[in-house]
Protein backbone atom coordinates (compact mmCIF):
# COMPACT_ATOMS: atom_id res chain seq x y z
CA UNK A 1 0.00 0.00 0.00
CA UNK A 2 1.71 3.20 -1.23
CA UNK A 3 1.77 6.39 0.79
CA UNK A 4 0.69 9.54 -1.06
CA UNK A 5 2.67 12.47 0.28
CA UNK A 6 1.02 15.89 0.16
CA UNK A 7 3.58 18.62 -0.60
CA UNK A 8 3.97 21.38 1.97
CA UNK A 9 1.48 24.18 0.94
CA UNK A 10 4.08 26.98 0.73
CA UNK A 11 6.34 24.79 -1.40
CA UNK A 12 3.33 23.95 -3.61
CA UNK A 13 2.58 27.70 -4.02
CA UNK A 14 6.21 28.40 -4.92
CA UNK A 15 6.05 25.57 -7.48
CA UNK A 16 2.95 27.17 -9.04
CA UNK A 17 4.78 30.51 -9.19
CA UNK A 18 7.81 28.95 -10.90
CA UNK A 19 5.50 27.34 -13.49
CA UNK A 20 3.76 30.73 -14.08
CA UNK A 21 0.42 29.47 -12.71
CA UNK A 22 -0.10 32.72 -10.86
CA UNK A 23 -3.82 32.35 -10.17
CA UNK A 24 -3.37 29.00 -8.34
CA UNK A 25 -0.34 30.40 -6.51
CA UNK A 26 -2.33 33.42 -5.32
CA UNK A 27 -5.28 31.30 -4.15
CA UNK A 28 -3.03 28.94 -2.20
CA UNK A 29 -1.22 31.86 -0.55
CA UNK A 30 -4.60 33.34 0.44
CA UNK A 31 -5.47 30.08 2.24
CA UNK A 32 -2.10 30.15 4.02
CA UNK A 33 -2.63 33.77 5.11
CA UNK A 34 -6.02 32.90 6.67
CA UNK A 35 -4.28 30.61 9.15
CA UNK A 36 -2.93 32.37 12.25
CA UNK A 37 -0.30 33.75 12.24
CA UNK A 38 -0.10 35.03 8.63
CA UNK A 39 3.19 34.04 7.08
CA UNK A 40 5.48 36.75 5.67
CA UNK A 41 6.71 34.33 2.99
CA UNK A 42 3.15 33.66 1.77
CA UNK A 43 2.36 37.40 1.82
CA UNK A 44 5.47 38.19 -0.22
CA UNK A 45 4.79 35.38 -2.68
CA UNK A 46 1.20 36.49 -3.18
CA UNK A 47 2.24 40.09 -3.94
CA UNK A 48 4.73 38.77 -6.52
CA UNK A 49 2.12 36.49 -8.12
CA UNK A 50 -0.41 39.33 -8.39
CA UNK A 51 2.27 41.61 -9.87
CA UNK A 52 3.29 39.03 -12.48
CA UNK A 53 -0.34 38.71 -13.64
CA UNK A 54 -0.40 42.33 -14.86
CA UNK A 55 3.33 42.95 -15.37
CA UNK A 56 4.21 45.02 -18.44
CA UNK A 57 7.82 45.59 -19.47
CA UNK A 58 8.19 49.36 -19.12
CA UNK A 59 11.13 49.54 -21.52
CA UNK A 60 9.27 48.69 -24.73
CA UNK A 61 5.71 49.59 -23.85
CA UNK A 62 5.89 53.33 -24.27
CA UNK A 63 3.19 55.16 -26.19
CA UNK A 64 2.85 58.90 -26.29
CA UNK A 65 -0.79 59.97 -26.28
CA UNK A 66 -2.41 63.05 -27.79
CA UNK A 67 -2.72 64.58 -24.31
CA UNK A 68 0.97 64.00 -23.59
CA UNK A 69 2.00 65.47 -26.96
CA UNK A 70 -0.19 68.55 -27.06
CA UNK A 71 0.04 69.43 -23.36
CA UNK A 72 3.79 68.76 -23.17
CA UNK A 73 5.47 71.65 -21.34
CA UNK A 74 9.04 70.60 -22.20
CA UNK A 75 10.50 73.27 -24.46
CA UNK A 76 12.29 71.97 -27.54
CA UNK A 77 14.15 73.85 -30.25
CA UNK A 78 11.71 75.01 -32.91
CA UNK A 79 14.36 74.91 -35.63
CA UNK A 80 16.52 71.91 -34.82
CA UNK A 81 19.85 71.41 -36.54
CA UNK A 82 19.77 68.74 -39.29
CA UNK A 83 19.88 65.22 -37.91
CA UNK A 84 19.34 66.16 -34.25
CA UNK A 85 15.56 65.90 -33.81
CA UNK A 86 12.90 63.23 -34.08
CA UNK A 87 10.08 65.77 -34.07
CA UNK A 88 11.04 67.31 -37.41
CA UNK A 89 11.29 64.44 -39.92
CA UNK A 90 12.85 66.59 -42.62
CA UNK A 91 16.01 67.20 -40.60
CA UNK A 92 17.68 63.90 -41.44
CA UNK A 93 20.75 63.62 -43.61
CA UNK A 94 21.68 60.88 -46.03
CA UNK A 95 20.35 57.39 -46.69
CA UNK A 96 16.72 58.51 -46.81
CA UNK A 97 14.61 56.87 -49.53
CA UNK A 98 12.40 59.06 -51.69
CA UNK A 99 8.62 58.99 -51.05
CA UNK A 100 8.22 57.90 -54.69
CA UNK A 101 9.87 54.59 -53.74
CA UNK A 102 9.01 54.07 -50.10
CA UNK A 103 5.68 55.28 -48.65
CA UNK A 104 5.79 57.63 -45.67
CA UNK A 105 3.60 58.10 -42.62
CA UNK A 106 1.81 61.29 -41.65
CA UNK A 107 4.88 62.30 -39.63
CA UNK A 108 7.04 62.17 -42.77
CA UNK A 109 8.96 58.99 -41.89
CA UNK A 110 9.30 55.96 -44.18
CA UNK A 111 7.19 52.97 -43.19
CA UNK A 112 9.27 50.59 -41.09
CA UNK A 113 9.37 46.85 -41.56
CA UNK A 114 8.19 46.13 -38.02
CA UNK A 115 5.38 47.82 -36.13
CA UNK A 116 6.22 48.50 -32.48
CA UNK A 117 4.99 51.01 -29.89
CA UNK A 118 5.74 54.56 -31.06
CA UNK A 119 7.36 53.31 -34.31
CA UNK A 120 5.30 55.56 -36.52
CA UNK A 121 4.91 58.37 -34.03
CA UNK A 122 5.86 61.89 -34.92
CA UNK A 123 4.67 65.05 -33.33
CA UNK A 124 1.58 66.18 -35.30
CA UNK A 125 1.79 69.84 -36.27
CA UNK A 126 -1.76 70.58 -35.14
CA UNK A 127 -4.36 69.06 -32.84
CA UNK A 128 -6.68 68.74 -35.85
CA UNK A 129 -4.11 66.71 -37.77
CA UNK A 130 -3.54 64.45 -34.75
CA UNK A 131 -7.22 63.66 -34.33
CA UNK A 132 -8.22 63.59 -38.00
CA UNK A 133 -5.96 60.72 -38.96
CA UNK A 134 -7.59 57.31 -38.42
CA UNK A 135 -5.60 55.39 -35.84
CA UNK A 136 -4.20 52.10 -37.07
CA UNK A 137 -0.79 50.55 -36.59
CA UNK A 138 0.31 52.11 -39.87
CA UNK A 139 -0.51 55.76 -39.18
CA UNK A 140 1.20 58.35 -37.07
CA UNK A 141 -1.86 59.21 -35.04
CA UNK A 142 -0.99 58.98 -31.36
CA UNK A 143 -3.25 57.06 -29.00
CA UNK A 144 -5.82 59.18 -27.20
CA UNK A 145 -3.98 59.05 -23.89
CA UNK A 146 -1.20 56.90 -22.53
CA UNK A 147 -2.48 57.52 -19.02
CA UNK A 148 -5.71 55.73 -19.96
CA UNK A 149 -3.81 52.44 -20.22
CA UNK A 150 -2.38 52.89 -16.74
CA UNK A 151 -5.86 53.49 -15.31
CA UNK A 152 -7.03 50.23 -16.85
CA UNK A 153 -4.00 48.44 -15.41
CA UNK A 154 -4.85 49.84 -12.00
CA UNK A 155 -8.34 48.34 -12.03
CA UNK A 156 -6.76 44.87 -11.91
CA UNK A 157 -6.62 45.25 -8.12
CA UNK A 158 -10.43 45.27 -7.95
CA UNK A 159 -10.70 42.08 -9.98
CA UNK A 160 -8.25 39.95 -8.03
CA UNK A 161 -10.19 40.00 -4.77
CA UNK A 162 -13.97 40.42 -4.59
CA UNK A 163 -13.72 41.66 -0.95
CA UNK A 164 -11.51 44.58 -2.01
CA UNK A 165 -7.81 45.02 -2.71
CA UNK A 166 -5.32 42.56 -1.17
CA UNK A 167 -3.29 45.38 0.42
CA UNK A 168 -4.94 48.57 1.66
CA UNK A 169 -2.29 51.11 0.66
CA UNK A 170 -3.76 53.99 2.67
CA UNK A 171 -3.18 52.06 5.93
CA UNK A 172 0.34 50.86 5.12
CA UNK A 173 3.23 52.10 7.23
CA UNK A 174 5.69 52.56 4.36
CA UNK A 175 8.58 53.51 6.68
CA UNK A 176 8.30 50.12 8.44
CA UNK A 177 8.38 48.15 5.17
CA UNK A 178 11.22 50.28 3.78
CA UNK A 179 13.47 48.85 6.53
CA UNK A 180 12.85 45.27 5.29
CA UNK A 181 14.57 45.19 1.86
CA UNK A 182 13.25 41.80 0.75
CA UNK A 183 9.62 42.67 1.49
CA UNK A 184 10.02 46.26 0.26
CA UNK A 185 11.04 45.23 -3.27
CA UNK A 186 8.06 42.88 -3.73
CA UNK A 187 5.73 45.53 -2.25
CA UNK A 188 7.10 48.26 -4.53
CA UNK A 189 6.52 46.19 -7.67
CA UNK A 190 2.99 45.37 -6.45
CA UNK A 191 2.16 49.06 -5.86
CA UNK A 192 3.76 50.22 -9.13
CA UNK A 193 2.49 47.55 -11.54
CA UNK A 194 -0.64 46.11 -9.93
CA UNK A 195 -2.17 49.04 -8.03
CA UNK A 196 -0.62 51.61 -10.36
CA UNK A 197 -0.23 54.06 -7.51
CA UNK A 198 2.92 55.87 -8.64
CA UNK A 199 2.91 58.38 -5.76
CA UNK A 200 2.91 55.74 -3.01
CA UNK A 201 5.46 53.69 -4.96
CA UNK A 202 7.73 56.74 -5.15
CA UNK A 203 7.35 57.38 -1.38
CA UNK A 204 8.27 53.77 -0.61
CA UNK A 205 11.27 53.85 -2.99
CA UNK A 206 12.52 57.14 -1.47
CA UNK A 207 12.32 55.74 2.08
CA UNK A 208 13.96 52.44 1.05
CA UNK A 209 16.87 54.12 -0.78
CA UNK A 210 17.38 56.34 2.27
CA UNK A 211 17.46 53.23 4.49
CA UNK A 212 20.03 51.68 2.12
CA UNK A 213 22.12 54.88 2.52
CA UNK A 214 21.71 55.65 -1.22
CA UNK A 215 23.95 52.71 -2.10
CA UNK A 216 21.37 50.41 -3.71
CA UNK A 217 21.22 51.00 -7.50
CA UNK A 218 17.93 49.04 -7.84
CA UNK A 219 15.99 51.59 -5.82
CA UNK A 220 17.43 54.46 -7.84
CA UNK A 221 16.18 52.82 -11.06
CA UNK A 222 12.71 52.43 -9.51
CA UNK A 223 12.64 56.10 -8.45
CA UNK A 224 13.66 56.98 -12.03
CA UNK A 225 10.77 54.89 -13.38
CA UNK A 226 8.33 56.71 -11.08
CA UNK A 227 9.65 60.12 -12.16
CA UNK A 228 9.39 59.06 -15.82
CA UNK A 229 5.79 57.97 -15.34
CA UNK A 230 5.05 61.33 -13.68
CA UNK A 231 6.63 63.21 -16.60
CA UNK A 232 9.61 64.51 -14.59
CA UNK A 233 12.20 63.53 -17.16
CA UNK A 234 15.19 65.51 -15.89
CA UNK A 235 14.78 64.05 -12.37
CA UNK A 236 14.48 60.57 -13.91
CA UNK A 237 17.70 61.20 -15.88
CA UNK A 238 19.59 62.05 -12.64
CA UNK A 239 18.41 58.84 -10.94
CA UNK A 240 19.33 56.59 -13.89
CA UNK A 241 22.78 58.22 -14.20
CA UNK A 242 23.38 57.78 -10.48
CA UNK A 243 22.33 54.10 -10.71
CA UNK A 244 24.73 53.54 -13.65
CA UNK A 245 27.64 54.95 -11.62
CA UNK A 246 27.03 52.26 -9.00
CA UNK A 247 26.15 49.34 -11.27
CA UNK A 248 26.26 48.97 -15.07
CA UNK A 249 22.98 47.35 -16.16
CA UNK A 250 21.51 47.01 -19.65
CA UNK A 251 17.99 47.88 -18.41
CA UNK A 252 19.19 51.14 -16.84
CA UNK A 253 20.90 52.15 -20.11
CA UNK A 254 17.65 51.45 -21.99
CA UNK A 255 15.62 53.53 -19.50
CA UNK A 256 18.09 56.43 -19.75
CA UNK A 257 17.97 56.36 -23.57
CA UNK A 258 14.16 56.34 -23.37
CA UNK A 259 14.27 59.53 -21.27
CA UNK A 260 16.47 61.25 -23.89
CA UNK A 261 14.16 60.15 -26.72
CA UNK A 262 11.18 61.62 -24.88
CA UNK A 263 13.19 64.86 -24.47
CA UNK A 264 13.85 64.74 -28.25
CA UNK A 265 17.61 64.23 -27.92
CA UNK A 266 18.29 61.26 -30.23
CA UNK A 267 22.01 62.04 -30.57
CA UNK A 268 22.46 61.88 -26.78
CA UNK A 269 20.46 58.61 -26.73
CA UNK A 270 22.79 57.19 -29.42
CA UNK A 271 25.82 58.14 -27.30
CA UNK A 272 24.26 56.41 -24.27
CA UNK A 273 23.73 53.23 -26.31
CA UNK A 274 27.29 53.34 -27.72
CA UNK A 275 28.78 53.81 -24.23
CA UNK A 276 26.64 50.88 -23.11
CA UNK A 277 28.11 48.75 -25.91
CA UNK A 278 31.60 49.45 -24.51
CA UNK A 279 30.47 47.83 -21.24
CA UNK A 280 28.31 45.10 -22.85
CA UNK A 281 29.81 44.29 -26.28
CA UNK A 282 27.35 42.56 -28.60
CA UNK A 283 24.27 43.25 -26.43
CA UNK A 284 21.36 42.84 -28.87
CA UNK A 285 18.91 45.24 -27.20
CA UNK A 286 21.45 48.09 -27.31
CA UNK A 287 22.36 47.54 -30.98
CA UNK A 288 18.66 47.28 -31.82
CA UNK A 289 18.02 50.56 -29.94
CA UNK A 290 20.64 52.33 -32.09
CA UNK A 291 19.09 50.90 -35.27
CA UNK A 292 15.61 52.10 -34.25
CA UNK A 293 16.85 55.65 -33.63
CA UNK A 294 18.63 55.80 -37.01
CA UNK A 295 15.44 54.51 -38.63
CA UNK A 296 13.36 57.21 -36.93
CA UNK A 297 15.87 59.83 -38.11
CA UNK A 298 15.43 58.61 -41.71
CA UNK A 299 19.01 57.36 -41.85
CA UNK A 300 17.97 54.01 -43.33
CA UNK A 301 21.43 52.89 -44.52
CA UNK A 302 22.93 53.19 -41.00
CA UNK A 303 19.85 51.49 -39.50
CA UNK A 304 20.29 48.54 -41.90
CA UNK A 305 23.97 48.18 -40.89
CA UNK A 306 23.06 48.01 -37.21
CA UNK A 307 20.22 45.54 -37.87
CA UNK A 308 22.80 43.34 -39.62
CA UNK A 309 24.96 43.58 -36.49
CA UNK A 310 21.93 42.44 -34.47
CA UNK A 311 21.62 39.36 -36.71
CA UNK A 312 25.32 38.54 -36.21
CA UNK A 313 24.58 38.24 -32.47
CA UNK A 314 21.07 36.75 -32.69
CA UNK A 315 20.09 35.26 -36.05
CA UNK A 316 16.45 34.73 -34.98
CA UNK A 317 15.72 38.39 -34.17
CA UNK A 318 12.34 38.97 -35.86
CA UNK A 319 12.48 42.78 -35.85
CA UNK A 320 15.92 42.90 -37.51
CA UNK A 321 14.99 40.35 -40.18
CA UNK A 322 11.73 42.17 -40.99
CA UNK A 323 13.39 45.61 -41.19
CA UNK A 324 16.25 44.41 -43.41
CA UNK A 325 13.71 42.58 -45.61
CA UNK A 326 11.58 45.70 -46.09
CA UNK A 327 14.72 47.77 -46.77
CA UNK A 328 15.78 45.37 -49.56
CA UNK A 329 12.25 45.38 -50.99
CA UNK A 330 12.16 49.18 -51.23
CA UNK A 331 15.74 49.18 -52.61
CA UNK A 332 14.42 47.23 -55.61
CA UNK A 333 15.84 43.88 -54.48
CA UNK A 334 12.70 41.74 -54.00
CA UNK A 335 14.62 38.46 -54.41
CA UNK A 336 16.82 39.23 -51.38
CA UNK A 337 13.80 40.48 -49.39
CA UNK A 338 12.09 37.18 -50.20
CA UNK A 339 14.93 35.26 -48.52
CA UNK A 340 14.50 37.28 -45.32
CA UNK A 341 10.72 36.82 -45.22
CA UNK A 342 11.13 33.11 -45.97
CA UNK A 343 13.48 32.94 -42.99
CA UNK A 344 10.71 34.41 -40.79
CA UNK A 345 8.34 31.75 -42.09
CA UNK A 346 10.85 29.01 -41.23
CA UNK A 347 11.11 30.46 -37.71
CA UNK A 348 7.37 29.99 -37.16
CA UNK A 349 6.06 33.52 -37.75
CA UNK A 350 2.71 32.81 -39.40
CA UNK A 351 0.51 35.86 -39.89
CA UNK A 352 -1.29 37.98 -42.48
CA UNK A 353 1.45 40.62 -42.76
CA UNK A 354 4.15 38.08 -43.56
CA UNK A 355 2.16 36.38 -46.35
CA UNK A 356 1.19 39.81 -47.68
CA UNK A 357 4.89 40.72 -47.94
CA UNK A 358 5.75 37.31 -49.42
CA UNK A 359 3.08 37.80 -52.11
CA UNK A 360 4.48 41.22 -53.08
CA UNK A 361 8.08 39.96 -53.13
CA UNK A 362 7.10 36.96 -55.28
CA UNK A 363 5.27 39.24 -57.73
CA UNK A 364 8.13 41.71 -58.14
CA UNK A 365 10.67 38.87 -58.28
CA UNK A 366 8.56 37.37 -61.13
CA UNK A 367 7.71 34.18 -59.22
CA UNK A 368 4.09 34.40 -60.30
CA UNK A 369 3.15 30.84 -59.28
CA UNK A 370 3.49 31.73 -55.58
CA UNK A 371 1.97 35.24 -55.67
CA UNK A 372 -1.76 34.51 -55.58
CA UNK A 373 -1.45 31.58 -53.14
CA UNK A 374 0.45 33.87 -50.71
CA UNK A 375 -2.25 36.54 -50.94
CA UNK A 376 -4.99 33.90 -50.47
CA UNK A 377 -3.25 32.71 -47.30
CA UNK A 378 -2.90 36.35 -46.14
CA UNK A 379 -6.67 36.92 -46.62
CA UNK A 380 -7.39 33.74 -44.68
CA UNK A 381 -5.14 34.84 -41.78
CA UNK A 382 -6.32 38.49 -41.66
CA UNK A 383 -7.53 39.30 -38.13
CA UNK A 384 -9.24 42.63 -38.82
CA UNK A 385 -10.57 44.78 -41.65
CA UNK A 386 -7.41 46.92 -41.88
CA UNK A 387 -5.33 43.83 -42.65
CA UNK A 388 -7.86 42.63 -45.23
CA UNK A 389 -7.80 46.09 -46.84
CA UNK A 390 -3.99 45.93 -47.14
CA UNK A 391 -4.17 42.57 -48.92
CA UNK A 392 -6.83 43.73 -51.40
CA UNK A 393 -4.84 46.90 -52.07
CA UNK A 394 -1.74 44.86 -52.93
CA UNK A 395 -3.81 42.52 -55.09
CA UNK A 396 -4.98 45.65 -56.94
CA UNK A 397 -1.32 46.49 -57.67
CA UNK A 398 -0.74 42.95 -58.95
CA UNK A 399 -3.80 43.32 -61.22
CA UNK A 400 -2.44 46.63 -62.59
CA UNK A 401 0.91 44.91 -63.18
CA UNK A 402 -0.66 42.15 -65.32
CA UNK A 403 -2.85 44.68 -67.15
CA UNK A 404 -6.25 43.54 -65.83
CA UNK A 405 -7.71 46.95 -64.97
CA UNK A 406 -11.21 45.63 -64.24
CA UNK A 407 -9.80 43.30 -61.57
CA UNK A 408 -7.71 46.19 -60.20
CA UNK A 409 -10.83 48.37 -59.98
CA UNK A 410 -12.67 45.66 -58.02
CA UNK A 411 -9.69 45.11 -55.68
CA UNK A 412 -9.41 48.82 -54.84
CA UNK A 413 -13.18 48.95 -54.26
CA UNK A 414 -12.90 45.98 -51.87
CA UNK A 415 -10.07 47.82 -50.10
CA UNK A 416 -12.43 50.74 -49.41
CA UNK A 417 -15.21 48.38 -48.29
CA UNK A 418 -12.86 47.07 -45.59
CA UNK A 419 -11.21 50.37 -44.69
CA UNK A 420 -13.02 53.54 -45.70
CA UNK A 421 -9.99 55.73 -44.85
CA UNK A 422 -7.51 54.11 -47.25
CA UNK A 423 -6.13 57.18 -49.06
CA UNK A 424 -3.89 55.20 -51.45
CA UNK A 425 -6.88 53.21 -52.74
CA UNK A 426 -8.85 56.44 -53.40
CA UNK A 427 -5.88 57.78 -55.35
CA UNK A 428 -5.50 54.64 -57.48
CA UNK A 429 -9.24 54.42 -58.14
CA UNK A 430 -9.12 58.04 -59.33
CA UNK A 431 -6.35 57.15 -61.82
CA UNK A 432 -8.49 54.28 -63.17
CA UNK A 433 -11.53 56.61 -63.42
CA UNK A 434 -9.38 59.13 -65.35
CA UNK A 435 -8.45 56.39 -67.83
CA UNK A 436 -12.16 55.74 -68.37
CA UNK A 437 -12.74 59.45 -68.88
CA UNK A 438 -14.85 59.95 -65.72
CA UNK A 439 -13.37 63.32 -64.75
CA UNK A 440 -15.81 64.30 -61.99
CA UNK A 441 -15.54 60.95 -60.15
CA UNK A 442 -11.74 61.11 -60.40
CA UNK A 443 -11.69 64.64 -59.01
CA UNK A 444 -13.93 63.68 -56.05
CA UNK A 445 -11.77 60.63 -55.26
CA UNK A 446 -8.55 62.66 -55.40
CA UNK A 447 -9.97 65.33 -53.10
CA UNK A 448 -10.94 62.60 -50.61
CA UNK A 449 -7.45 61.05 -50.83
CA UNK A 450 -5.65 64.38 -50.30
CA UNK A 451 -7.84 65.30 -47.29
CA UNK A 452 -7.27 61.87 -45.69
CA UNK A 453 -3.50 61.90 -46.29
CA UNK A 454 -2.08 65.41 -46.71
CA UNK A 455 1.42 63.92 -46.30
CA UNK A 456 1.14 61.97 -49.61
CA UNK A 457 2.26 63.77 -52.75
CA UNK A 458 0.46 61.51 -55.29
CA UNK A 459 -3.16 62.75 -54.81
CA UNK A 460 -2.03 66.39 -54.95
CA UNK A 461 0.03 65.78 -58.11
CA UNK A 462 -2.73 63.80 -59.84
CA UNK A 463 -5.28 66.49 -58.95
CA UNK A 464 -2.94 69.14 -60.38
CA UNK A 465 -2.57 67.20 -63.66
CA UNK A 466 -6.34 66.63 -63.89
CA UNK A 467 -7.16 70.29 -63.20
CA UNK A 468 -4.60 71.43 -65.77
CA UNK A 469 -6.16 69.16 -68.43
CA UNK A 470 -9.63 70.64 -67.91
CA UNK A 471 -8.22 74.18 -67.86
CA UNK A 472 -8.59 74.96 -64.14
CA UNK A 473 -5.09 76.42 -63.81
CA UNK A 474 -5.53 78.05 -60.40
CA UNK A 475 -6.56 74.81 -58.66
CA UNK A 476 -3.84 72.97 -60.54
CA UNK A 477 -1.19 75.41 -59.25
CA UNK A 478 -2.45 75.15 -55.64
CA UNK A 479 -2.40 71.32 -55.75
CA UNK A 480 1.06 71.29 -57.39
CA UNK A 481 2.43 73.47 -54.58
CA UNK A 482 1.02 71.01 -51.99
CA UNK A 483 2.63 68.16 -53.91
CA UNK A 484 5.99 69.96 -53.89
CA UNK A 485 5.65 70.59 -50.16
CA UNK A 486 5.05 66.87 -49.53
CA UNK A 487 7.89 65.75 -51.83
CA UNK A 488 10.29 68.60 -52.75
CA UNK A 489 12.41 66.42 -55.06
CA UNK A 490 9.58 65.34 -57.42
CA UNK A 491 10.72 66.39 -60.92
CA UNK A 492 7.29 66.11 -62.62
CA UNK A 493 5.76 68.47 -60.04
CA UNK A 494 8.53 71.01 -60.59
CA UNK A 495 8.02 70.85 -64.37
CA UNK A 496 4.25 71.32 -63.95
CA UNK A 497 4.75 74.37 -61.70
CA UNK A 498 7.19 75.82 -64.26
CA UNK A 499 4.62 75.29 -67.05
CA UNK A 500 1.84 76.90 -65.01
CA UNK A 501 4.02 79.91 -64.16
CA UNK A 502 4.64 80.39 -67.89
CA UNK A 503 0.87 80.25 -68.50
CA UNK A 504 0.25 82.86 -65.81
CA UNK A 505 3.02 85.09 -67.20
CA UNK A 506 1.35 85.05 -70.63
CA UNK A 507 -2.06 86.13 -69.24
Structure description:
With 507 residues, the protein is mainly alpha-helical. The protein is built from 27 helices and no strands. It has helices spanning 9-18, 22-34, 40-54, 66-70, 127-132, 146-154, 156-160, 174-178, 181-195, 198-211, 217-229, 233-246, 250-262, 266-279, 284-296, 300-313, 318-330, 334-346, 352-364, 368-381, 385-402, 405-418, 423-436, 439-452, 458-469, 473-486, 491-506. Helix 1 (9-18) packs antiparallel against helix 2, helix 2 (22-34) runs antiparallel to helix 3 (40-54) and helix 14 (266-279) packs antiparallel against helix 15. The longest helix has 18 residues, at 385-402.
Brief descriptors of the model:
27 helices, mainly alpha, elongated, 507 residues
Mean pLDDT: 84
Gyration radius, in Å? 28 Å
| Residues in helix, % | 55-70%
How many beta-strand segments? 0
Largest sheet: none
Contiguous helical run count: 27
Shape: elongated
Can I get a quick summary?
With 507 residues, this protein is mainly alpha-helical. It is built from 27 helices and no strands.
Walk me through the topology.
Layout: H1 9-18, H2 22-34, H3 40-54, H4 66-70, H5 127-132, H6 146-154, H7 156-160, H8 174-178, H9 181-195, H10 198-211, H11 217-229, H12 233-246, H13 250-262, H14 266-279, H15 284-296, H16 300-313, H17 318-330, H18 334-346, H19 352-364, H20 368-381, H21 385-402, H22 405-418, H23 423-436, H24 439-452, H25 458-469, H26 473-486, H27 491-506
Helix pairs in contact: 1-2, 1-3, 2-3, 3-9, 9-10, 10-11, 11-12, 12-13, 13-14, 14-15, 15-16, 16-17, 17-18, 18-19, 19-20, 19-21, 20-21, 21-22, 22-23, 23-24, 23-25, 24-25, 25-26, 26-27
Amino acid sequence: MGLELEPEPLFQAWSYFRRRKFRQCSDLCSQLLERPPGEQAAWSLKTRALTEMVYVDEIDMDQEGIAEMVLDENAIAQVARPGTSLKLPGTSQGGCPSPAVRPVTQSGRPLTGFVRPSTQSGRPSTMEQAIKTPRTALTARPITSASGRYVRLGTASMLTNPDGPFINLSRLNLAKYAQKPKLAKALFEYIFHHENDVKNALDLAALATEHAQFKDWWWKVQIGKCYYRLGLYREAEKQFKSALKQQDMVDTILYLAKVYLRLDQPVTALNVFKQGLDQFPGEVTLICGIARIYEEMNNISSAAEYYKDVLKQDNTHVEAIACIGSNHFYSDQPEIALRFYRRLLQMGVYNCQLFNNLGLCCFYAQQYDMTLSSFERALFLAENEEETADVWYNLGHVAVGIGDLNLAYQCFRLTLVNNNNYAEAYNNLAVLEMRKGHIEQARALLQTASSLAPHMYEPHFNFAILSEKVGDLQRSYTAAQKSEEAFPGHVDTQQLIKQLKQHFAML
